[in-house]
Amino acid sequence: MTGIEDPFWRAVAVFRVASLAYAAVLLIRAGGYAHPVTGWLVIGVMALWTVATIFAYSVGELRGRPLLAADMLVTVGCLLATPAVQGAYQQGSLPITGTWMGGAVLAWGVYGGRRLGAVAALIVSLADLWLHGVPGGGFETLPINGTVLLFLAGVVVGHVARLAKKAEERMQQAIELEAAGRERERLARDIHDSVLQVLALVQRRGQEIGGEAAELGRLAGEQEAALRELVRLRPEASALGTADLCVLLHRYGSATVTVSAPATPLTLPAATAAEMAAAVGAALDNVARHCGARAPAWVFAEGDGGLVTVTVRDEGPGIAPGRLEEAAAAGRLGVAQSIRGRIADLGGTVTVISDPGRGTEIEMSVPAG
Fold first, then answer.
1. Tell me: the pLDDT tens digits for 118-161?
2. I need a surface site. Which of 53, 143, 263, 312 has the fewest CB within 10 A?
3. Which of 147, 90, 86 is nearest to 122 (CA)?
4. Final residue before a domain boundary, out of 149, 171, 193
5. Number of H helices, E strands in the chain
6. What is the DSSP letter of 242?
7. Residues 6 or more apart from 152 whose CB is under 8 A from it?
8. What is the residue range of 343's domain?
9. How much is the pTM?
10. Edge-to-edge strands of the sheet including 297-304?
């Protein structure tokens, strides 16, 4: 499968070939410089390395820091061979490599982004500036314009290449999410045509028969509601590593648990959303344990002012003053760790409002960012 990076590597290959031809033309126009044989030897090395890198960078398994390091060593070596070819410099002349030395800078930028591209530009520029400062070189000014162009090439190409990589990753994730959504819809149709209809029939017939069958019918109704909610939900994680807390909370909906959440997503980092949903699950477990398995409970979720708040409320016997502290001292850490501990780790707060005989309300808030 062709990756989005491949066009960048092909562009670098074209640049190397064109720059190699330009360096050969310069050598011919200069009559071979002071040492023609040495000049053509350097051009030969550049040609061989151009062919090698065109092949190496086209193979994904070969792209890596060893190849980048070798590319830079060959480029700097050919660049520093300029005095052996040209002898004493003349004002305004190009090195034996011409613009070919920019190929390594472009390769580093495509591989590692703008920062690595800038590092490569710095290395080549320092070698070029040192070359122009060789004693007897005859330059009174240094080629600052060439240095600036190298930095611009490395940074701009690296930045664009990195953006292209991210775009490809997000596109792939979007394709996977779309495929997951289609599969979910297919399963939902199959489940609706079979399992949900059976559960609805069991619920209805159980209520008609009564007795123990009524209990089976009630359980079937709860499972039907939970299963309908499950097949309705969209995939949790987005392409940015976030999750919709509403999706996670709706999983707790049943015949006894009512979940009320906004129609718009409550987007949180995936890990934060998972921990907050786990804290809500712990609160609902406490309701079932202390109020009874059939006790009704309500879950309310909202986002406002940079906070996401979830409230779990029941109409049970309430919590006596000091009871939570006594439970924590006795080693029963359901509220202390499963709820308060989780939310505290997320940088949030937990407020417990309870009066004996009036139910309990647990409010959990975490930063939305």
1. 999 999 988 888 877 654 444 444 566 677 888 888 888 888 88
2. 263
3. 147
4. 171
5. 12, 7
6. E
7. none
8. 238-369
9. 0.50
10. 257-260, 297-304, 307-314, 360-367, 349-354
